[in-house]
């Protein structure tokens, strides 16, 4: 068939850099997420603990406020590792709820609508596709975990002085690495479940069950055998152990009172908790590598 018109030309305009092409995925994902006013309201409410703890830090250094309140808040609320660990625990719980809302539909929607071939025929790889989806959760969780945690740390350092900053710089590392560990775990779990379960409600229910059911079984094991090794199958307990290790508050032995008397049971070693967390992440990556792939239907 003869072609008489030769008006078609190759695109000669500016090209997007290769390293940033995957950013089109989170850009459109954020657009869908921010359409929900309920989610925006909940996400803003996640910053209330930051406001409360910032006020507590300020009151601790305000002489006039202490005189009005007529009690010494310095002794009542010391700003130490436990203070920042408690803030991280609260924000970690809120991070799980945010993940429960936004994580499951990210990959499930593409798999349900057979959209992966359309994504992967574009100039980015499977790894960039997965990272683009993960970056949606990573960014939103970072804004409510380690970023406000470091803001509180810097605020306390500003009020205390450089000497406090130099002596407690390790706290900033603990805040950052404990939050990053939890964020990566939640992100990988949510994306893996999203890749396995194509329906949003079922994926959210599966993520919630994966968080709650092992914790219940772990506590049953602890009570039956008077041990703490049941925590090794609980995601929340693993996170608490690793976080306590980073903040220097980990207690390897725990006293328990049973019907036969008081017993001392040992927590799983920190290296076991780290190993199980790395194992979970490796399994999630293997499943994502297997599930996220383009296919061609040949008739």
Helix amount:
55-70%
Q: How far is the first residue's CA from the last residue's CA?
A: 27 Å
**C-alpha-based Rg, rounded:** 24 Å
Q: In percent terms, what proportion of residues is strand? A: under 5%
Question: Which structural category do the helix and sheet elements fall into?
Answer: mainly alpha
Global mean pLDDT: 84
Question: Which term fits the overall shape?
Answer: globular
Characterise this structure.
By secondary structure, the chain is mainly α. The chain has one domain (37-291). It is 69% helix and 4% strand. It contains 15 helices and two strands. It has a two-stranded antiparallel ribbon with strand order 1-2. The longest helix is centred in the middle third of the chain and has 28 residues, at 169-196. The two termini are 27 Å apart. The model has no long low-confidence stretch (mean pLDDT 84).
